UniProtKB/TrEMBL annotation, chain A:
UniProt GO MF annotations: NADH dehydrogenase (quinone) (non-electrogenic) activity; quinone binding
The keyword Translocase appears for this protein: yes
Subcellular location, record wording: Cell membrane; Membrane
Enzyme class label: translocase
Transmembrane segments: 6-23, 28-48, 60-83
Assembly, per entry: NDH-1 is composed of 14 different subunits. Subunits NuoA, H, J, K, L, M, N constitute the membrane sector of the complex.
Name of this chain's protein: NADH-quinone oxidoreductase subunit K
Organism: Stackebrandtia albiflava
Gene Ontology cellular component terms for the protein in this record: NADH dehydrogenase complex; plasma membrane
Catalysed reaction, written as an equation: a quinone + NADH + 5 H(+)(in) = a quinol + NAD(+) + 4 H(+)(out)
Membrane topology according to the record: Multi-pass membrane protein
Similarity comment: Belongs to the complex I subunit 4L family.
UniProtKB/TrEMBL annotation, chain B:
Source species of the chain: Stackebrandtia albiflava
InterPro entries, per the entry: NADHpl_OxRdtase_5_subgr, ND/Mrp_TM, NU5C-like, Proton_antipo_N
Example GO BP: ATP synthesis coupled electron transport
Protein name (record): NADH-quinone oxidoreductase subunit L
Domain NADH-Ubiquinone oxidoreductase (complex I) chain 5 N-terminal: 80-129
An example Gene Ontology molecular-function term: NADH dehydrogenase (ubiquinone) activity
From TrEMBL, chain C:
Protein name listed in UniProt: NADH-quinone oxidoreductase subunit N
Entry EC no(s): 7.1.1.-
UniProt KW keywords: Cell membrane, Membrane, NAD, Quinone, Translocase, Transmembrane, Transmembrane helix, Transport
Quaternary structure, from the entry: NDH-1 is composed of 14 different subunits. Subunits NuoA, H, J, K, L, M, N constitute the membrane sector of the complex.
Bilayer-spanning residue ranges: 20-41, 48-68, 88-113, 148-165, 171-191, 203-225, 245-270, 282-302, 322-342, 349-369, 375-396, 417-437, 457-481, 493-515
């Protein structure tokens, strides 16, 4: 299997994630779609690391994972607090600020 | 003559302190607010005093230099530097600025001291001193700037300080109106000054004196441009100095506290126009027509001032019109050009002394008479306020030009120089100057006699007028000594001192000898005094005198100057405005309103796209990203 | 990052660390970490003053070390074998950007710490309590949370790192390091908590979305160049051997992430909502410091990696990306200005003005090296003015807290002339009236863009600033000429901290307008990015 397939897979995952952000209403699911996009980036990094023959890409993917973990912490906190106030995690309900 | 200024050395490199000191005073006083109420006036006076001492030091250093090197420039910072546009902020201390610095800080200091007493009962005394310091700083900037832009900054600064001080008692409607009038008249003049500055930029690419003067001297400009620059500068000068046709604001400006009238509207600010023309002498010397206009305006204004001065009953307004007329003399002198530049300046200095003294004297009279200003309500005051009376007498004798007081030494040479102009002009301008001297003697005598002599015509509420405290009379005495001595001491020394600025001029053939001119002047002056004495020694009726002749009626109406302005400036202005408004409403506004409506409508519609939904925002971002990626690929491979 | 894969041994050599170069970052991040410890170990009553002192002292110390670094351009790490490690690059523009962020950060921290203007400050005491619940009413009396200080310090540190990051991974870490605290800070408002939480959620989801684009772009560029160091990417472009598709898609994705933070159209959508919902001191921090960081990052990426400053005369990618960025800049300037026209809320109006200003800054980015100094100048001029403006906004209050709706501002000049004068000055500066910093900044950017040949951009820029002047002047007219509303809000007397913020902002606005040359000389002296 050529590494190109991994790149295509990653691009597909990235697109699925991006579309997911647009179509899903639940804030948690929207956020998971973002995580999917980050992991697509990870897969791309690792694949290129393999293609280029350097370790850098793999090391970077660790960094990205750590950042993603930090984002989860912050994101869940924010989503939790808004859920407590509104009793709803739908991103469409939070629509006071507009125009 | 090539104008070259030497860079500042030694103590002179500290000359920015001259401006910084009073400016710091004003800042501190304004920022601290009420906290500085108790000592604010002392600080204000001290900064000006310190500036005077500094001015003296710089003056001494400058006089130690050889004749042809008597100038010092100091670059402060570059204001704007962008391509060909280069405005730098720099100062210039040369003999001309030096005399102005000494006049402004010296007389300014005395008037500050006087104001401590005069304003002692006023709640706003600290505010007053803050504005006063601001004025001094701006005025010093005006005379120290080394280019026209710096000068303009100072010019506007003194304007601002002047409006603030004219309307100092802003709860009096007349004071507020007077402030507004001064503002408008000055605006007309300032517009002229600004246009002149733009013309300089366009012609020389710079406004610093050195470039402009050398450019004019190099004579590669069309004479029309030089004339235009000169005339627009003159318009600016007329606005600031209360010259025809913008003279009407100055008498109204007397609504301000008297020290303001003395410092700003007699001794310093109103002479800024004279400074502007004297400073720009290479421009005016390069164009005969410009000079002729200056001389004509000077002659016309000096007569207007005298005639109206005869008909006014308000002590400060008489003095104000006398200021208008004396500045007319200065304009006449600087317009004559050549050697007369220096004559204009020494008359300015002498006038600074005696007119400041007269105003402070008037203030002292008002102080003792419950702020009465009508001279028909004075009389016999000499017994009650000896110091004021005597110092006022000296100022009065100085202004009418009695030898050997200062007016004699400074006014007579101007009259003589006017006579010695070539051809018919000499007779016209000399005659006007001579007539003015006679009229000055008349109205000043009237003022003096009605105020201090003759029967008492006081209002009932005054029982015993009192002399002012020493803090007010001491400045009066110092200024009186100045009025007496200044002329004799200055007439030759200052002319020599100013030679490096204005250059030597060869004497040409004289139409009238020195002695004939003096004799004629003296005769007219004595005539004026005698007529006034005979008419007014018994006082005057309290009621308005019926105006028997047209000239009296006209003079009471300020020679219809306000109506003239209304007719010549305001009416066409109003018609033009109306026409423009019509065009504007129909044409320009149509387009602009249409555009504005389009923008507003577009805005209202676009706003709707900001729906507040996270998912539509994400769509915007995602489609943006797709477009960017696609566009980049298309640009490269398409 | 240059470790090679070898068959059996990993030969890892440690770089030499230039601690002076790292000192500003170490101090700020260190202060943030100590702040966390203070939260854990100090009693509640003592935390506020300790945190405030720690933050201000930390920032001032960082500023001092930034100044100490001036003059020598170098990477902060050096390998003994001479190969390049560009994770952090200390150069003139980078130092200037860090200095600007720290200086504005001090002001923003003062605004965040202000507790005199409204009881307890702008921040909620316990963010976990549900909004509008009983417990929420009970906590109204408690002073605000002090966690905001370490959060702010992390944000400021991240922004500083973002401006000096020499490789894309460090840049990504920095991006997250300043974004994550900002997401939280946005949600911590004491009043109108629903709006605040909504702003935080929107900012967080969209921000995470945009950073996913950023890291995917990094991945693609890594595939193209085999390295994520900006200079290596530049060298790879010069060698031009690999797939252009990878390069261009990577560049585009990367740009999306950066333009999102800079609030350029069409990636600006979050800005108005987040600026309006966030606590005003946090909005001030975002408008001033985040703007500097985002534009600073854009400048570095486009100058070092995708410009040809490293190899003048060599092939440049600028021909490819310039048209796109020009289109974005034009859209940003025009749409930002047009949308500002009909705004009725002062914070929203300033948000759209911030978008339009991002457009003017992009003009400077597009002109590359020639306009670098002018762009830096613009960032500082705009930053201080916008800080003062938001500081003033915090002062106009009624019983509901800040009265941000413009109809409530009508005729305020009659009641508080001093406030009206200050706000008028700031509005005039935004509108770019001469003798204010706004004019000097616009003049500098537009004239250098003209010199760089971007005539059409400058024309659009000037037109856009004409449109944008209208809403600003509308506010001025409203302040001075309208009749006050019945229960008009009062303008609180600023406490020491807000007073300082307003004063500093106004002083900079005036000084940079009167004597712009002083700062222009400094930005000229900062030179160009280190790109060799």
């Amino acid at each position: 299997m050529t590494p190109t397939y991994y790149l295509v897979l990653a691009a597909a995952l990235f697109t699925i994630g991006a579309v997911g952000v647009l179509v899903r209403r639940n804030a948690i699911v929207v956020f998971m779609c973002v995580e999917l996009m980050l992991n697509a980036a990870n897969l791309t990094l690792v694949t290129f690391s393999r293609i280029n023959g350097t370790l850098d890409g793999q090391i970077m993917s660790f960094f990205v994972m750590v950042v993603a973990a930090a984002e989860v912490v912050i994101g869940l906190a924010i989503i939790m607090s808004i859920y407590r106030s509104r009793r709803s995690a739908s991103v469409d309900d939070a629509n006071l600020l507009k125009y | 003559m090539d104008t070259v200024f030497a860079p500042a050395t030694g103590a002179l490199s500290w000359m920015w302190l001259l401006i910084a000191l009073p400016l710091a005073g004003a800042t501190v006083l304004l920022l601290l607010g009420r906290r500085a109420d108790r000592w604010g006036h002392l600080l204000g006076t001290a900064t000006v005093g310190a500036a005077f001492v500094l001015g003296l030091v710089f003056f001494l250093q400058l006089s130690g230099l050889p004749d042809d090197a008597r100038s010092a420039t100091l670059d402060l910072f570059t204001f704007v530097e962008s391509g060909s546009l280069n405005i730098s902020a720099g100062l210039l201390f040369d003999p001309l600025s030096a005399v102005f610095v000494l006049l402004i800080t010296g007389v300014g200091f005395l008037i500050h001291v006087y104001a401590i007493g005069y304003m002692s009962h006023d709640e706003g005394r600290r505010r007053f001193f803050a504005f006063f310091n601001l004025f001094v700083a701006a005025m010093l900037l005006l005379v120290l700037g080394d280019n026209y832009v710096m000068m303009f900054v100072g010019w506007e600064g003194v304007g601002v300080a002047s409006y603030l001080l004219i309307s100092f008692w802003f709860n009096r409607p007349s004071a507020a109106t007077a402030g507004k009038k001064a503002f408008l008249a000055n605006r007309v003049g300032d517009a002229g000054f600004l246009i002149a500055i733009f013309l300089m930029f366009a012609s020389f690419g710079s406004t610093d004196f050195q470039t402009v003067f050398n450019g004019t001297a190099a004579n590669n400009l069309a004479s029309g441009t030089v004339l235009a620059i000169g005339l627009f500068l003159l318009l600016g000068a007329c606005g600031k100095s209360g010259q025809f046709p913008l003279q009407t604001w100055l008498p109204d400006a007397m609504e301000g506290p008297t020290p303001v009238s003395a410092l700003i509207h007699a001794a310093t600010m109103v002479t800024a126009g004279v400074y502007l023309i004297a400073r720009s002498h290479p421009i005016f010397s390069a164009n005969e027509t410009a000079q002729l206009v200056v001389v004509s305006i000077g002659a016309l204004t000096l007569l207007i001032g005298c005639v109206i001065g005869c008909a006014k009953d308000d002590i400060k307004r008489v003095l104000a019109y006398s200021t208008v007329s004396q500045i007319g003399y200065m304009f006449l002198a600087v317009g004559l050009g050549g050697a007369a530049y220096a004559l204009g300046i020494i008359h300015l200095l002498a006038h600074g002394f005696f007119k400041a003294g007269l105003f402070l004297g008037a203030g002292s009279v008002m102080h003792g008479m419950n702020d009465q200003v009508d001279i028909r309500r004075f009389g016999g005051l000499w017994k009650y306020m000896k110091s004021t009376w005597f110092t006022f007498l000296l100022g009065y004798l100085a202004i009418i030009g009695l030898p050997p007081l200062s007016g004699f030494f400074t006014k007579d040479p101007i009259i003589l120089a006017a006579f010695n102009r070539e051809g018919w002009q000499g007779w016209v301008f000399g005659g006007a100057a001579l007539l003015g001297a006679g009229l000055t003697a008349f109205y000043m005598t009237r003022l003096f006699i009605l105020t201090f002599h003759g029967p008492k015509r006081w209002t009932d509420d005054i029982e015993h007028p009192h002399e002012s405290p020493a803090i007010m009379t001491i400045p009066l005495w110092i200024l009186a000594v100045g009025s007496v001595a200044a002329g004799g001491l200055m007439s030759t020394s200052v002319v020599n001192w100013l030679t490096p600025v204005f250059g030597h001029t060869e004497h040409h053939e004289e139409k009238m000898s020195h002695w004939t001119a003096t004799g004629l002047t003296m005769a007219l002056v004595v005539l004026g005094v005698v007529i006034a004495f005979l008419l007014f020694r018994r006082g005057t009726a309290l009621a308005e005198q019926p105006a028997r002749t047209h000239i009296v009626r006209a003079a009471r109406q300020n020679l219809y100057a306000d109506r003239f302005n209304e007719l010549v400036l305001e009416l066409p202005g109003r018609l033009l405005t109306r026409a423009l408004v019509w065009v504007d409403n129909r044409g320009v506004d149509g387009v602009v309103n249409g555009l504005a409506a389009a923008v507003g409508g577009g805005s209202a519609r676009l706003r709707r796209s900001q729906t507040g939904f996270v998912r539509s925002y994400a769509l915007s971002i995602l489609s943006g990203a797709v477009v960017v990626v696609a566009a980049l690929l298309v640009v490269t491979f398409g | 990052m240059t470790t090679m894969v070898s068959a059996d041994t990993l030969d890892i050599s440690f770089p030499e660390v230039d601690y002076l170069a790292l000192a500003p970052l170490l101090i700020v991040f260190g202060a943030a970490c100590v702040g966390i410890l203070l939260e854990a170990f100090l009693p509640r009553t003592r935390r506020y003053s300790a945190q405030l002192v720690l933050s201000v002292v930390g920032l001032v110390a960082a500023l001092v070390t930034i100044v100490m670094n001036v003059g020598e351009d170098r990477p902060a790490f050096a390998m003994s074998d001479g190969s390049r490690v560009d994770a952090i690059v200390i150069d003139g523009p980078g130092l200037f950007l860090m200095g600007a962020i720290v200086a504005m950060g001090v002001i923003a921290v003062l605004l965040i710490a202000e507790r005199r203007v409204s009881a307890g400050g702008a921040f909620v005491a316990h963010a976990a309590v549900a909004a509008d619940s009983k417990a929420d009413a009970a906590q109204a009396r408690h002073p605000g949370a002090t966690e905001v200080f370490p959060l702010t310090m992390f944000a400021i540190g991240g922004m500083m790192l973002f401006c000096v990051a020499g490789d894309l991974l460090t840049m990504f870490i920095a991006l997250e390091a300043f974004s994550l605290p900002l997401y939280l800070l946005c949600g911590l408002a004491r009043r109108r908590r629903l709006l605040s939480q909504e702003a935080a959620m929107k900012y967080f989801l969209l921000g995470a979305f945009a950073s996913a684009f950023f890291i995917y772009g990094v991945a693609l560029l890594y595939g193209y160049a085999g390295s994520v160091q900006l200079v290596d990417i530049n060298a790879a472009i010069a060698a031009s051997g690999n797939s252009q598709v990878l390069l261009l898609s990577g560049l585009a994705m990367l740009a999306v992430g950066l333009l999102f933070k800079a609030a350029a159209v069409p990636f600006h959508v979050w800005t108005p909502d987040v600026y309006t919902g966030a606590p005003t001191p946090v909005t001030a921090l975002m408008a001033a410091c985040t703007k500097v960081a985002a534009i600073g990052g854009l400048l570095r990426v486009f100058n070092v990696a995708f410009g040809n400053s490293g190899n003048p005369g060599g092939p440049s990618l600028a021909w490819d990306w310039r048209p796109i960025l020009i289109a974005i800049a034009i859209a940003t300037m025009v749409i930002g200005a047009i949308l500002a026209v009909t705004q009725t809320d002062i914070k929203r109006l300033l948000a759209y003005s911030s978008i339009a200003n991002a457009g003017y800054l992009l003009v400077g980015v597009i002109a590359l090296g020639q306009a670098l100094g002018a762009t830096l100048f613009y960032l500082v001029a705009y930053g201080f003015t916008v800080l003062a403006a938001f500081a003033v906004v915090t002062l106009v209050r009624d019983s509901q807290g800040e009265a941000t709706h413009l109809s409530r501002w009508a005729g305020l000049a009659k009641r508080s002339p001093r406030f009206a004068v200050i706000f008028t000055l700031l509005m005039l500066a935004f509108a770019g009236i001469p003798l204010t910093s706004g004019f000097a900044a616009k003049f500098a950017v537009f004239s250098s863009a003209l010199e760089a040949g971007q005539t059409s951009l400058v024309i659009v820029g000037v037109l856009s600033s004409v449109i944008l002047a209208f809403p600003y002047l509308k506010v001025v007219v409203l302040l001075w000429l309208s009749q006050p509303v019945e229960d008009a809000p009062a303008v609180s007397m600023p406490g020491f901290m807000t007073g300082t913020a307003v004063t500093v902002g106004v002083v900079f606005t005036v000084l940079l307008g009167l004597a712009p040359q002083v700062l222009l000389n400094i930005v000229d002296g900062a030179g160009q990015f280190l790109a060799k």
